[in-house]
Amino acid sequence: MLPSEDEAKRLSRSLKNCEVRTFKDNGHTLLLEDGINLLTVIKATSKYRRSRRLDFVSDFIPPSQQEFKIGFDNFTGLIQYCTSPVIFSTLEDGKIVRGLAGVPSEGPVLLVGYHMLVGVELAGLVKGFLTEKNIIVRGLAHPQLFVQGSASELSFVDYTRVFGATPVTAKNFYKLLSTKSHILLYPGGAREALHRKGEEYKLIWPDRQEFVRMAAKFGATIVPFGVVGEDDIVELVLDYDDLMRIPVVNDLVRQSSSQMARVRNGTEGEVANENLFLPGVIPKLPGRFYYLFGKPIETRDKPELLKDKESAEELYTEIKSEIESRIAYLLKKREDDPYRGFIDRIVYRVLSNDTLEIPTFSPSDA
Q1: Which residues pair with 281 in a beta bridge?
Q2: Radius of gyration, CA atoms only, the chain
Q3: Which residues form a coiled coil (predicted)?
Q4: Cα 233 to Cα 36, 286, 289, 323, 341, distances in angstroms
Q5: Statement: the pTM of the whole predicted model exceeds 0.90
Q6: Are 347 and 73 contacting, i.e. CB atoms less than 8 angstroms apart?
Protein backbone atom coordinates (compact mmCIF):
# COMPACT_ATOMS: atom_id res chain seq x y z
CA MET A 1 0.00 0.00 0.00
CA LEU A 2 1.38 3.33 -1.07
CA PRO A 3 0.19 6.89 -0.39
CA SER A 4 1.26 8.03 -3.87
CA GLU A 5 -0.55 6.99 -7.05
CA ASP A 6 2.42 8.11 -9.16
CA GLU A 7 4.78 5.90 -7.15
CA ALA A 8 2.39 2.97 -7.53
CA LYS A 9 2.35 3.42 -11.30
CA ARG A 10 6.14 3.62 -11.39
CA LEU A 11 6.55 0.42 -9.41
CA SER A 12 3.94 -1.39 -11.52
CA ARG A 13 6.14 -0.87 -14.57
CA SER A 14 9.07 -2.50 -12.77
CA LEU A 15 7.29 -5.38 -11.04
CA LYS A 16 6.12 -8.42 -12.98
CA ASN A 17 2.38 -9.24 -12.93
CA CYS A 18 1.62 -6.09 -10.96
CA GLU A 19 -1.75 -4.35 -10.95
CA VAL A 20 -2.69 -1.10 -9.22
CA ARG A 21 -6.00 -0.16 -7.65
CA THR A 22 -6.49 3.35 -6.30
CA PHE A 23 -8.86 4.56 -3.58
CA LYS A 24 -9.05 8.31 -4.14
CA ASP A 25 -11.61 9.03 -1.41
CA ASN A 26 -9.66 7.28 1.34
CA GLY A 27 -6.75 8.25 3.55
CA HIS A 28 -3.46 6.55 4.43
CA THR A 29 -4.98 4.14 6.97
CA LEU A 30 -6.75 2.26 4.20
CA LEU A 31 -7.38 -1.06 5.94
CA LEU A 32 -8.82 0.67 9.02
CA GLU A 33 -11.52 2.44 7.02
CA ASP A 34 -15.03 1.20 6.32
CA GLY A 35 -15.80 -0.21 2.90
CA ILE A 36 -12.28 -1.44 2.14
CA ASN A 37 -11.77 -5.19 2.03
CA LEU A 38 -8.29 -6.39 1.12
CA LEU A 39 -9.56 -9.86 0.21
CA THR A 40 -12.00 -8.34 -2.29
CA VAL A 41 -9.15 -6.48 -3.98
CA ILE A 42 -7.05 -9.67 -4.11
CA LYS A 43 -9.95 -11.65 -5.63
CA ALA A 44 -10.90 -8.88 -8.05
CA THR A 45 -7.39 -8.76 -9.50
CA SER A 46 -7.09 -12.57 -9.71
CA LYS A 47 -4.15 -12.63 -7.27
CA TYR A 48 -5.56 -15.27 -4.93
CA ARG A 49 -4.45 -18.79 -5.77
CA ARG A 50 -4.21 -22.17 -4.10
CA SER A 51 -1.09 -23.22 -6.00
CA ARG A 52 1.76 -21.62 -7.93
CA ARG A 53 -0.33 -21.29 -11.07
CA LEU A 54 -3.53 -19.29 -11.34
CA ASP A 55 -6.61 -21.48 -11.85
CA PHE A 56 -9.83 -19.51 -12.36
CA VAL A 57 -11.94 -22.53 -11.42
CA SER A 58 -10.26 -23.98 -8.33
CA ASP A 59 -9.03 -20.62 -7.00
CA PHE A 60 -12.51 -19.12 -6.92
CA ILE A 61 -13.88 -18.03 -3.53
CA PRO A 62 -17.63 -17.28 -3.39
CA PRO A 63 -18.54 -13.63 -2.81
CA SER A 64 -19.28 -12.49 0.74
CA GLN A 65 -22.44 -10.68 1.83
CA GLN A 66 -20.53 -7.40 1.75
CA GLU A 67 -19.34 -8.08 -1.81
CA PHE A 68 -22.89 -9.01 -2.80
CA LYS A 69 -24.18 -5.72 -1.45
CA ILE A 70 -21.44 -3.59 -3.03
CA GLY A 71 -21.64 -5.42 -6.35
CA PHE A 72 -25.39 -5.14 -6.78
CA ASP A 73 -25.95 -1.82 -5.01
CA ASN A 74 -23.01 0.29 -6.13
CA PHE A 75 -22.36 -1.10 -9.61
CA THR A 76 -25.66 -2.44 -10.92
CA GLY A 77 -28.23 -1.17 -8.43
CA LEU A 78 -29.47 1.66 -10.63
CA ILE A 79 -30.09 -0.45 -13.72
CA GLN A 80 -31.75 -3.12 -11.56
CA TYR A 81 -34.07 -0.53 -10.05
CA CYS A 82 -34.86 1.04 -13.42
CA THR A 83 -35.53 -2.21 -15.30
CA SER A 84 -37.22 -4.32 -12.56
CA PRO A 85 -36.16 -7.68 -14.09
CA VAL A 86 -38.76 -10.44 -14.40
CA ILE A 87 -37.55 -14.04 -14.56
CA PHE A 88 -39.59 -17.00 -15.77
CA SER A 89 -38.68 -20.66 -16.16
CA THR A 90 -40.29 -23.74 -17.66
CA LEU A 91 -41.22 -26.82 -15.63
CA GLU A 92 -40.86 -30.40 -16.87
CA ASP A 93 -44.53 -30.45 -17.93
CA GLY A 94 -43.99 -27.35 -20.07
CA LYS A 95 -45.74 -24.92 -17.71
CA ILE A 96 -44.13 -21.47 -17.49
CA VAL A 97 -43.83 -20.07 -13.97
CA ARG A 98 -42.35 -16.93 -12.48
CA GLY A 99 -39.02 -17.61 -10.81
CA LEU A 100 -36.36 -20.26 -11.32
CA ALA A 101 -38.21 -23.37 -10.17
CA GLY A 102 -37.78 -24.91 -13.63
CA VAL A 103 -33.97 -24.69 -13.57
CA PRO A 104 -32.29 -27.70 -11.91
CA SER A 105 -30.42 -26.99 -8.69
CA GLU A 106 -28.10 -29.95 -9.18
CA GLY A 107 -25.23 -29.39 -11.61
CA PRO A 108 -23.65 -29.52 -14.00
CA VAL A 109 -26.07 -27.13 -15.68
CA LEU A 110 -25.27 -25.17 -18.83
CA LEU A 111 -27.29 -21.98 -19.34
CA VAL A 112 -27.17 -21.03 -23.02
CA GLY A 113 -28.77 -17.84 -24.26
CA TYR A 114 -28.89 -14.54 -26.09
CA HIS A 115 -26.43 -11.76 -25.23
CA MET A 116 -28.12 -8.34 -25.15
CA LEU A 117 -26.28 -5.13 -26.06
CA VAL A 118 -23.03 -4.86 -24.00
CA GLY A 119 -24.34 -7.63 -21.75
CA VAL A 120 -26.79 -5.47 -19.79
CA GLU A 121 -28.76 -8.57 -18.79
CA LEU A 122 -25.94 -10.16 -16.79
CA ALA A 123 -26.51 -8.53 -13.41
CA GLY A 124 -30.20 -9.44 -13.26
CA LEU A 125 -29.50 -13.05 -14.17
CA VAL A 126 -26.64 -13.55 -11.71
CA LYS A 127 -28.54 -11.84 -8.89
CA GLY A 128 -31.65 -13.88 -9.61
CA PHE A 129 -29.81 -17.17 -9.17
CA LEU A 130 -28.04 -15.99 -6.02
CA THR A 131 -31.12 -14.64 -4.26
CA GLU A 132 -33.61 -17.36 -5.24
CA LYS A 133 -31.49 -20.52 -5.47
CA ASN A 134 -28.26 -19.54 -3.67
CA ILE A 135 -26.36 -20.61 -6.79
CA ILE A 136 -23.33 -18.82 -8.19
CA VAL A 137 -23.46 -18.78 -11.97
CA ARG A 138 -19.98 -19.13 -13.46
CA GLY A 139 -19.97 -17.03 -16.60
CA LEU A 140 -17.58 -17.83 -19.44
CA ALA A 141 -16.34 -14.36 -20.35
CA HIS A 142 -14.19 -12.78 -23.05
CA PRO A 143 -10.46 -13.07 -22.15
CA GLN A 144 -10.02 -9.33 -22.65
CA LEU A 145 -11.77 -8.80 -19.31
CA PHE A 146 -8.85 -10.54 -17.62
CA VAL A 147 -6.05 -8.63 -19.31
CA GLN A 148 -4.00 -6.53 -16.89
CA GLY A 149 -5.36 -2.99 -16.91
CA SER A 150 -4.08 0.42 -15.94
CA ALA A 151 -4.36 1.91 -12.48
CA SER A 152 -7.96 2.47 -11.49
CA GLU A 153 -10.47 2.05 -8.73
CA LEU A 154 -12.31 -1.23 -8.34
CA SER A 155 -14.63 -1.45 -11.34
CA PHE A 156 -17.56 -3.44 -12.64
CA VAL A 157 -15.11 -5.63 -14.57
CA ASP A 158 -13.26 -6.39 -11.32
CA TYR A 159 -16.52 -7.46 -9.71
CA THR A 160 -17.31 -9.84 -12.56
CA ARG A 161 -14.24 -11.77 -11.36
CA VAL A 162 -15.41 -11.61 -7.76
CA PHE A 163 -18.72 -13.16 -8.85
CA GLY A 164 -17.12 -16.01 -10.74
CA ALA A 165 -16.47 -14.89 -14.31
CA THR A 166 -13.95 -17.16 -16.03
CA PRO A 167 -12.05 -16.74 -19.33
CA VAL A 168 -13.82 -18.70 -22.05
CA THR A 169 -11.45 -21.53 -22.93
CA ALA A 170 -12.04 -25.23 -23.55
CA LYS A 171 -9.94 -26.04 -20.49
CA ASN A 172 -11.97 -23.82 -18.15
CA PHE A 173 -15.24 -25.10 -19.64
CA TYR A 174 -14.09 -28.67 -18.96
CA LYS A 175 -13.12 -27.87 -15.37
CA LEU A 176 -16.40 -26.11 -14.61
CA LEU A 177 -18.40 -29.06 -15.95
CA SER A 178 -16.28 -31.47 -13.90
CA THR A 179 -17.04 -29.49 -10.72
CA LYS A 180 -20.81 -29.63 -11.47
CA SER A 181 -21.12 -25.86 -11.74
CA HIS A 182 -23.93 -23.77 -13.18
CA ILE A 183 -22.26 -22.30 -16.26
CA LEU A 184 -23.39 -19.33 -18.33
CA LEU A 185 -22.45 -19.50 -22.01
CA TYR A 186 -23.16 -17.10 -24.85
CA PRO A 187 -22.24 -18.77 -28.16
CA GLY A 188 -22.68 -15.39 -29.90
CA GLY A 189 -20.02 -13.85 -27.69
CA ALA A 190 -18.75 -10.33 -28.29
CA ARG A 191 -20.19 -10.10 -31.79
CA GLU A 192 -23.71 -10.68 -30.47
CA ALA A 193 -23.28 -8.34 -27.51
CA LEU A 194 -21.94 -5.62 -29.83
CA HIS A 195 -24.44 -6.17 -32.61
CA ARG A 196 -25.24 -3.77 -35.42
CA LYS A 197 -28.41 -1.74 -35.94
CA GLY A 198 -31.35 -3.94 -36.83
CA GLU A 199 -29.77 -7.03 -35.23
CA GLU A 200 -31.62 -6.78 -31.92
CA TYR A 201 -32.58 -10.28 -30.75
CA LYS A 202 -30.76 -11.96 -33.63
CA LEU A 203 -28.62 -14.93 -32.64
CA ILE A 204 -25.16 -14.64 -34.20
CA TRP A 205 -23.76 -18.09 -33.54
CA PRO A 206 -21.00 -20.24 -35.05
CA ASP A 207 -22.11 -22.49 -37.90
CA ARG A 208 -20.90 -25.56 -36.02
CA GLN A 209 -21.66 -26.59 -32.44
CA GLU A 210 -18.97 -25.86 -29.87
CA PHE A 211 -20.49 -26.99 -26.56
CA VAL A 212 -22.96 -29.87 -27.03
CA ARG A 213 -20.47 -32.74 -27.06
CA MET A 214 -18.52 -31.37 -24.10
CA ALA A 215 -21.76 -30.98 -22.13
CA ALA A 216 -22.78 -34.53 -23.06
CA LYS A 217 -19.44 -35.89 -21.87
CA PHE A 218 -20.36 -34.80 -18.33
CA GLY A 219 -24.10 -35.46 -18.65
CA ALA A 220 -24.85 -31.78 -18.16
CA THR A 221 -28.37 -30.37 -18.30
CA ILE A 222 -28.66 -27.66 -20.94
CA VAL A 223 -31.15 -24.86 -20.25
CA PRO A 224 -31.73 -22.50 -23.21
CA PHE A 225 -33.00 -19.03 -22.35
CA GLY A 226 -34.17 -15.87 -24.02
CA VAL A 227 -34.01 -12.31 -22.69
CA VAL A 228 -35.48 -9.07 -24.02
CA GLY A 229 -35.49 -5.42 -22.98
CA GLU A 230 -32.45 -3.73 -24.51
CA ASP A 231 -34.65 -1.86 -26.99
CA ASP A 232 -36.68 -0.53 -24.06
CA ILE A 233 -33.75 1.23 -22.38
CA VAL A 234 -31.55 2.58 -25.19
CA GLU A 235 -31.56 3.33 -28.89
CA LEU A 236 -28.45 2.25 -30.76
CA VAL A 237 -27.30 5.21 -32.89
CA LEU A 238 -23.62 4.42 -33.57
CA ASP A 239 -22.68 0.81 -34.27
CA TYR A 240 -19.39 -0.63 -35.54
CA ASP A 241 -20.13 0.25 -39.15
CA ASP A 242 -20.90 3.86 -38.20
CA LEU A 243 -17.73 4.22 -36.13
CA MET A 244 -15.59 2.88 -38.95
CA ARG A 245 -16.85 5.69 -41.17
CA ILE A 246 -15.63 8.38 -38.75
CA PRO A 247 -12.01 9.57 -39.29
CA VAL A 248 -9.68 9.17 -36.29
CA VAL A 249 -12.30 7.11 -34.46
CA ASN A 250 -11.90 4.25 -36.93
CA ASP A 251 -8.14 4.23 -36.32
CA LEU A 252 -8.72 4.01 -32.57
CA VAL A 253 -11.11 1.08 -33.03
CA ARG A 254 -8.65 -0.75 -35.30
CA GLN A 255 -5.79 -0.17 -32.86
CA SER A 256 -7.86 -1.39 -29.92
CA SER A 257 -9.00 -4.48 -31.84
CA SER A 258 -5.46 -5.38 -32.90
CA GLN A 259 -4.28 -5.39 -29.28
CA MET A 260 -7.12 -7.36 -27.72
CA ALA A 261 -7.24 -11.05 -26.86
CA ARG A 262 -9.03 -13.23 -29.43
CA VAL A 263 -11.52 -16.04 -28.90
CA ARG A 264 -12.57 -16.89 -32.45
CA ASN A 265 -9.26 -17.40 -34.24
CA GLY A 266 -9.92 -19.82 -37.08
CA THR A 267 -13.69 -19.60 -36.73
CA GLU A 268 -15.72 -18.94 -39.85
CA GLY A 269 -18.82 -16.79 -40.13
CA GLU A 270 -19.96 -13.44 -38.79
CA VAL A 271 -19.42 -14.48 -35.16
CA ALA A 272 -15.65 -14.32 -35.77
CA ASN A 273 -15.83 -10.52 -36.17
CA GLU A 274 -15.37 -9.88 -32.46
CA ASN A 275 -14.08 -6.30 -32.49
CA LEU A 276 -14.49 -4.65 -29.09
CA PHE A 277 -15.74 -1.06 -29.04
CA LEU A 278 -18.18 1.23 -27.22
CA PRO A 279 -21.36 1.71 -29.25
CA GLY A 280 -23.15 5.06 -29.25
CA VAL A 281 -26.56 4.93 -27.61
CA ILE A 282 -29.33 7.32 -26.59
CA PRO A 283 -31.06 6.42 -23.28
CA LYS A 284 -34.81 5.95 -23.17
CA LEU A 285 -37.24 6.10 -20.28
CA PRO A 286 -36.53 2.56 -19.03
CA GLY A 287 -38.78 -0.31 -19.88
CA ARG A 288 -38.30 -3.73 -18.32
CA PHE A 289 -36.06 -6.79 -18.67
CA TYR A 290 -37.69 -10.18 -19.15
CA TYR A 291 -35.94 -13.56 -18.93
CA LEU A 292 -37.41 -16.94 -19.85
CA PHE A 293 -35.55 -20.18 -19.23
CA GLY A 294 -36.82 -22.99 -21.41
CA LYS A 295 -37.43 -26.61 -20.56
CA PRO A 296 -34.20 -28.32 -19.42
CA ILE A 297 -32.57 -30.59 -22.00
CA GLU A 298 -30.85 -33.68 -20.58
CA THR A 299 -27.66 -34.99 -22.20
CA ARG A 300 -27.09 -37.76 -19.67
CA ASP A 301 -27.31 -41.29 -21.11
CA LYS A 302 -27.23 -40.02 -24.69
CA PRO A 303 -24.08 -41.62 -26.13
CA GLU A 304 -25.11 -40.66 -29.66
CA LEU A 305 -24.20 -37.04 -28.86
CA LEU A 306 -20.61 -38.11 -28.31
CA LYS A 307 -20.32 -40.62 -31.15
CA ASP A 308 -22.38 -38.97 -33.87
CA LYS A 309 -21.57 -35.43 -34.98
CA GLU A 310 -24.91 -35.12 -36.76
CA SER A 311 -26.82 -35.81 -33.53
CA ALA A 312 -24.82 -33.12 -31.75
CA GLU A 313 -25.50 -30.67 -34.58
CA GLU A 314 -29.22 -31.46 -34.45
CA LEU A 315 -29.34 -30.70 -30.74
CA TYR A 316 -27.35 -27.50 -31.35
CA THR A 317 -29.96 -26.39 -33.89
CA GLU A 318 -32.77 -27.35 -31.50
CA ILE A 319 -31.25 -25.23 -28.71
CA LYS A 320 -30.86 -22.25 -31.01
CA SER A 321 -34.44 -22.59 -32.21
CA GLU A 322 -35.69 -22.84 -28.62
CA ILE A 323 -33.92 -19.59 -27.66
CA GLU A 324 -35.41 -17.80 -30.66
CA SER A 325 -38.83 -19.11 -29.63
CA ARG A 326 -38.38 -17.87 -26.04
CA ILE A 327 -37.37 -14.42 -27.31
CA ALA A 328 -40.42 -14.25 -29.59
CA TYR A 329 -42.67 -15.28 -26.69
CA LEU A 330 -41.30 -12.53 -24.43
CA LEU A 331 -41.53 -9.85 -27.12
CA LYS A 332 -45.20 -10.69 -27.57
CA LYS A 333 -46.12 -11.16 -23.91
CA ARG A 334 -44.43 -8.01 -22.62
CA GLU A 335 -47.11 -6.05 -24.46
CA ASP A 336 -49.54 -7.40 -21.83
CA ASP A 337 -47.46 -6.22 -18.86
CA PRO A 338 -49.26 -3.32 -17.13
CA TYR A 339 -45.98 -2.40 -15.41
CA ARG A 340 -43.68 -2.44 -18.41
CA GLY A 341 -43.44 1.35 -18.27
CA PHE A 342 -41.08 3.04 -15.80
CA ILE A 343 -43.70 5.54 -14.55
CA ASP A 344 -46.19 2.73 -13.88
CA ARG A 345 -43.63 0.93 -11.75
CA ILE A 346 -42.76 4.12 -9.83
CA VAL A 347 -46.44 4.68 -9.03
CA TYR A 348 -46.78 1.05 -7.92
CA ARG A 349 -43.80 1.40 -5.58
CA VAL A 350 -45.21 4.60 -4.08
CA LEU A 351 -48.68 3.15 -3.50
CA SER A 352 -47.59 -0.27 -2.23
CA ASN A 353 -44.93 -1.92 -0.12
CA ASP A 354 -41.66 -1.21 -1.91
CA THR A 355 -40.31 -4.63 -0.95
CA LEU A 356 -43.04 -6.45 -2.87
CA GLU A 357 -42.36 -8.01 -6.25
CA ILE A 358 -43.78 -5.81 -8.99
CA PRO A 359 -46.50 -7.74 -10.89
CA THR A 360 -46.23 -8.57 -14.58
CA PHE A 361 -48.17 -10.48 -17.24
CA SER A 362 -49.49 -13.94 -16.43
CA PRO A 363 -47.39 -16.68 -18.07
CA SER A 364 -50.34 -19.06 -17.74
CA ASP A 365 -51.82 -17.36 -20.81
CA ALA A 366 -49.06 -18.80 -22.99
Answers
A1: 236
A2: 21
A3: none
A4: 33, 5, 9, 21, 11
A5: yes
A6: no
